[in-house]
Structure formats: structure tokens, C-alpha cells
């Protein structure tokens, strides 16, 4: 019997993981609410464009109603943070009692939001450095390293194996707090500038003035982090903070 994974979300990261899993033989289902994305995925599947330009299309199952996709043992949550509460309620319908949901979302409170609805035994946190963007609904471009850190959980092995099978570098991390804060610092430092300047992350760091702004943001986050008594290792380590060059 093939491995199966329910992915909540139809955006860039959801499409990236869907394509990677499908390429590895995992039976992928996607649950979402974005009509254009759902329609494209139903009609054409998910199209993955690698950094080297190679394109592949993979078929996935697509749902817009949680009542239509019940009985899953494993789920991956990749919706935006403001959608997490709804995702948690949907997982009550979709996830088996002994199932496990992995969240790889950005932000600080997604794990707890899911736990409040599903319970600790059915949720595990994670962090990834994978990057992706959509050029059209269902068309995803892969960027960045395929690295995933998973929280330690007694039921994590099947998800870990599926991720490795799909080509991700996977590591079990008993305490994800520093990695979660580190990614938060990166996002808080870089994302506002890329939005204002309308450039990608890579292009941003090629611009001296923008890189200096990014460095200033990292320093500010670094100081704020210390005011909250967080460990030093939770700083971004992304190359723009002077403490890590």
C-alpha cells in the first residue's frame, strides 16, 4: 500500500511538498480554499520547476471540503498563520485518532493552535529552509535547500521516512525553539524589504544598501531576542547579521 499524505494549503510551499512527495510515489491529497489554485491543480496537477529549469508535472487529489478527505494517518500543515485555526478544525474531520499532523509554517503560535484542537499526541512542530514561489496557480518554482527539522515525537518515523524518500534532508531536533526563532528573525528582517523593493531574497542580498538595511533589522531582532532571554543560537545565522559573519 502506498504512503499517503494530506497537505493543507495550495500555495507555493504546499505545491512544492506535494510535487516532491508525488515524485517519490506518495499518494498526495491537497485540501484548500483558494479557488484558482484548486482549479489549476484539478485540471493540470502540480507543475514543479527546478532551479536548473527542469519541469515535471505530478497528479494530486484536490479537495475543498474536509468531509471529503477523512481517514488520513498523516498530514502536513502549510497554510498561512491566520488560517491555522481553520486548518485545526478541518483536521478534526480528516485526521485519524492516532494520526499525526506536522506543521512547517512560519510563526510562533501555529503548533499551540493545532494542539489546542487536536491534542499534543496528534501534532508535531517542524522547521524548513526550503523556499518556493508560484508563477501561476499550481506552478511552483523551487529555490533554497531541501532541509527539514522535525520535533521529537513517538509517531514521527513514517513522516520522516516519507520526507527522506522525497529527497529532503531530515533531522530530528528535540528543541525546535531556537530554529523557530531563527527563522522568524530571517523573515522579519528580509521579507519587508523584498516586498517594498519587489525583489527576491537572493536579489536583495546582492544590493549593498538593502543588505545593510537587512543587517540593521537582524541586529534589532537580535537585541529584542536577548530582551526576551532567548538563547543566542536563535539569531538568524543567515549571513546578514554581523554576529554570524
Query: Can you summarize the main beta sheet?
Result: 8 strands, mixed
CATH arch. level architecture of the largest domain:
3-Layer(aba) Sandwich
Computed CA radius of gyration, to the nearest angstrom = 18 Å
| Strand-residue proportion | 25-35%
In CATH terms, the superfamily of the largest domain is NAD(P)-binding Rossmann-like Domain
Unreliable parts: 222-245
| Run of helices and strands | EHEHEEEEHEHEEEEHEHHH
Structural class of the secondary elements? alpha/beta
Number of self-contained structural domains = 2
Q: Tell the overall outline.
A: globular
CATH topology of the largest domain: Rossmann fold
CATH C-level label of the largest domain: Alpha Beta
**Mean pLDDT across residues:** 84
How many DSSP H or I helices? 8
Description:
The protein has 245 residues and is α/β, with parallel strands linked by helices. It has two domains: 4-174, Rossmann fold, CATH 3.40.50.720; 178-244. Helix content is 39%, strand content 26%. The chain contains eight helices and twelve strands. It has helices at residues 12-23, 35-44, 84-94, 110-118, 157-165, 177-197, 201-204, 208-227, and strands spanning 4-8, 27-31, 46-49, 55-58, 61-63, 72-77, 95-103, 123-128, 131-136, 139-143, 147-151, 169-173. Strands 5-2-1-6-7-8-11-12 form an eight-stranded mixed sheet, with helices on both faces. Strands 4-3-10-9 form a four-stranded mixed sheet. Strand 11, helix 5 and strand 12 form a beta-alpha-beta unit. Helix 3 packs parallel to helix 4 (110-118). The longest helix has 21 residues, at 177-197. Mean pLDDT is 84; it is low at 222-245.
Amino acid at each position: 500500500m502506498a504512503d499517503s499524505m494530506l497537505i493543507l494549503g495550495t500555495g507555493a510551499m504546499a505545491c512544492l511538498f506535494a510535487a516532491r512527495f508525488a515524485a517519490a510515489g506518495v499518494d498526495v491529497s491537497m485540501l484548500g480554499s483558494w479557488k484558482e489554485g484548486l482549479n489549476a491543480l484539478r485540471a493540470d496537477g502540480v507543475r514543479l520547476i527546478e532551479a536548473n529549469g527542469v519541469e515535471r508535472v505530478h497528479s494530486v487529489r484536490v479537495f475543498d471540503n474536509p468531509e471529503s478527505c477523512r481517514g488520513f494517518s498523516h498530514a502536513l500543515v502549510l497554510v498561512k498563520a491566520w488560517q491555522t485555526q481553520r486548518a485545526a478544525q478541518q483536521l478534526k474531520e480528516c485526521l485519524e485518532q492516532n494520526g499525526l499532523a506536522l506543521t512547517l509554517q512560519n510563526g510562533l503560535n501555529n503548533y499551540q493552535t493545532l494542539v489546542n484542537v487536536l491534542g499534543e499526541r496528534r501534532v508535531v512542530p517542524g522547521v524548513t529552509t526550503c523556499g518556493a514561489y508560484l508563477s501561476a496557480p499550481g506552478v511552483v518554482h523551487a529555490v533554497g535547500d531541501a532541509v527539514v527539522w522535525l520535533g521529537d515525537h513517538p509517531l514521527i518515523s513514517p513522516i520522516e521516512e516519507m520526507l527522506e524518500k522525497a529527497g529532503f534532508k531530515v533531522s530530528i531536533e528535540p528543541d525546535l525553539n531556537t530554529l523557530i526563532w531563527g527563522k522568524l528573525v530571517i523573515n522579519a528582517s528580509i521579507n519587508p524589504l523584498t516586498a517594498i523593493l519587489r525583489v527576491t531574497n537572493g536579489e536583495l542580498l546582492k544590493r549593498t544598501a538593502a543588505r545593510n538595511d537587512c543587517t540593521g533589522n537582524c541586529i534589532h531582532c537580535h537585541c529584542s531576542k536577548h530582551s526576551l532571554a532567548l538563547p543566542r543560537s536563535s539569531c538568524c545565522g543567515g549571513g546578514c547579521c554581523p554576529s554570524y559573519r
